[in-house]
Amino acid sequence: MPLQPQLISLLGEVRAFSRKIQRAARMRTRQAGRMGDDVPTHATCLVKLFDDALVQSSGREQIICLAAAVELGVLRWHHLSHCAGTAGETSDRALRALYWATSTRWHRANASQRMPEPLRPRSPAGNPKLCEHCQTLRLDCRRYSPHAAMKGLHEIFGMNTEVGLRQQFRCEACDVLWVRRMPTHEPFATWSVVPAGTL
């Protein structure tokens, strides 16, 4: 089945879930006011309702809930990380696409506050001579696996919520150092040559 009709159907479910959660948040706010309790803000109620819904749901419902949270502007980092396993385990292409779009939308919205300045090389780096396999990797830099002549340096330097996992590899054929990054918000790896003088 083509992906677009499935996505349109999913977006309809996301909007319906958004309306349901908004009604529940308004009701909760009104009830707190009638009971004389401290009246929580609408956004606070939404976050709490999404927290509960994400923990109690699984599979398709969980991804729909996640997309509704980003639609209403109350998605938090822990929501994304909670649903990453669900998205990775499903064979439904439309659900994976919805998770990826949700994650990308959230990261772009938060990029101005979350993303550090890119690192600049400290010294001019010449173009290293790459072997044929490294040239292929440079052209296909979104794949996960290193080529056969690359050895991991077993030095994983940093898992953080903004950047993800990074690991160094050295090609034994051309002696070029590479870094593989696994961004937390994308289903792909990215490879880059480490310029001389930056380590």
How does this model look, in words?
By secondary structure, the protein is of the alpha+beta class. The chain folds into two domains: 3-114, no CATH class; 132-193, no CATH class. The chain is 51% helix and 15% strand. It is built from seven helices and four strands. The protein has helices at 3-34, 42-56, 59-71, 77-89, 93-109, 111-114, 132-139; strands at 150-160, 164-171, 177-182, 190-193. Strands 1-2-3-4 form a four-stranded antiparallel sheet, covered by helices on one side. Strand 3 (177-182) and strand 4 form a beta hairpin. The longest helix has 32 residues, at 3-34. The chain is elongated, with a radius of gyration of 22 Å. The termini are far apart.
**What characteristic shape results from the CA principal axes?**
elongated
Overall mean pLDDT score?
A: 77
Rg result: 22 Å
Q: What is the helix fraction of residues, given as a range?
A: 40-55%
Q: What's the arrangement of strands in the largest beta sheet?
A: 1-2-3-4
- Assembly form of the protein: single chain
What number of structural domains do the residues give? 2
Give me the count of strands: 4
Q: How many strands, which pairing sense, and closed or not: the largest β-sheet?
A: 4 strands, antiparallel
Strand content: 5-15%
Category by helix and strand content: alpha+beta
Q: What is the element string, with H for helices and E for strands?
A: HHHHHHHEEEE
Poorly predicted runs are 114-125, 158-162
Distance between the termini: 48 Å
User: If helices are DSSP runs of H or I spanning 4 or more residues, what is the number of helices?
Assistant: 7
